[in-house]
Specification:
- The chain is mainly alpha-helical and about 220 residues long.
- Helix content is about 80%, strand content about 0%.
- The protein has four helices and no strands.
- Helix 1 runs parallel beside helix 3, helix 2 runs antiparallel to helix 3 and helix 3 runs antiparallel to helix 4.
Length: about 220
């Protein structure tokens, strides 16, 4: 096996292990957050004597449904692809990496990763905030006569004031992390391209030296 072929296989194995790690993290995260969302939907107790704002109930039900759907979609992708990667990675043969579908299914793996870690996490933060409003807003009926807000409204507003800045920080971190990761991949690909060019030059020089050696004894 030549040096260039060995480098290509090492790169493919690294991509395989990275794809497998992403799918494992996706499956665990999606199963956990979707389970929490379903428990929140089932266990929440609405006050029969209180008239909830229709927009609040619609937002809560829609957010929960979209949250579960997004995580189940990511979980389905990871469940379908991960066994194939596990089967290849457990075979102790360098050439077996060519049988793995991680290169062809790269977009699906990245989609599941984005759904589970970015979109799903943002929806979960929104779910927690809406759940606080649904849970504490019925205490509004105990409003004081001086016009101040009740303890339930104060609790819901406090959760909103915490979640909104945290969501902004999460978005900023996600964008920064993505840009840093893209920059790292670009630098790594440039280095790999330079290495391939260097290997190609070495092979060309070796071929020229072999031709000179063959042509040397003849007048």
């Amino acid at each position: 096996m030549s040096l260039s072929e060995h480098s290509m296989q090492a790169l493919s194995w690294r991509k395989l292990y990275l794809s497998r790690a992403k799918l494992k993290a996706t499956s665990r995260t999606s199963a956990l957050l979707s389970g929490f969302a379903m428990v929140a939907m089932v266990e929440v107790q609405l006050e029969r004597d209180y008239t909830y704002p229709p927009g609040l109930l619609i937002a809560f039900s829609a957010c929960t449904t979209v949250l579960v759907a997004v995580h189940l979609f990511a979980l389905m992708i990871s469940t379908c692809i991960l066994p194939n990667l596990e089967a290849v990675s457990n075979v102790h043969n360098l050439n077996s990496v060519n049988e793995s579908p991680h290169e062809r299914m790269h977009r699906h793996i990245e989609l599941a990763w984005a759904f589970s870690t970015v979109i799903g996490t943002l929806l979960f933060l929104t779910e927690v905030m809406l759940l606080c409003w649904v849970k504490f807003l019925p205490l509004k009926s105990t409003k004081d006569h001086n016009g101040t807000i009740s303890s339930g409204e104060a609790a819901a507003i406090a959760s909103t004031c915490i979640m909104v800045p945290f969501g902004v920080v999460f978005i900023v971190f996600a964008v920064h992390f993505y840009r840093t990761l893209v920059s790292h991949k670009t630098d790594r690909q440039i280095r790999e391209l330079e290495q391939v060019i260097r290997l190609q030059n070495q092979l060309d020089h070796r071929a020229e030296n072999d031709e000179l050696k063959v042509a040397g004894p003849f007048p």
